[in-house]
Specification:
five-stranded mixed sheet; alpha+beta; 26% strand
């Protein structure tokens, strides 16, 4: 996991679902990390889940496309699909701009 390891109520808990180390998956991780550093520095955690290694999680989390990022907290859960290269769309999708 990447980000602040403190148990912090203000922390954003994000799960990024990918498929191995594809260019699109790697871009999604890099873009998500950049967005988090710019807007949530020290207040986020990213858990990367490779669905090739844990395929059962796709059904459990209702993942239909990858890469997908799921905001687990703060509630309510939100999700954004794609490589997250459009920072504005990602910020709106995760409702990050409304929380700051």
């Amino acid at each position: 996991m990447i980000g602040d390891q403190q148990e912090d109520e203000g922390r954003w808990d994000l799960r990024l679902f990918v498929s191995n180390h594809t260019p699109r998956s790697m871009a999604a991780f890099a873009n998500l990390k950049r967005i988090c550093e710019e807007h949530l520095a020290g207040h986020y955690r990213i858990e990367v889940i490779d669905l090739l290694k844990q395929p059962q999680l796709a059904k459990e989390e209702q993942i239909v496309a990858i890469p997908t990022v799921v905001r687990r907290s703060p509630l309510p859960p939100r999700r954004v699909v794609g490589d997250l290269s459009n920072a504005e769309k990602t910020l709106r999708g995760l409702q990050l701009c409304e929380q700051m």
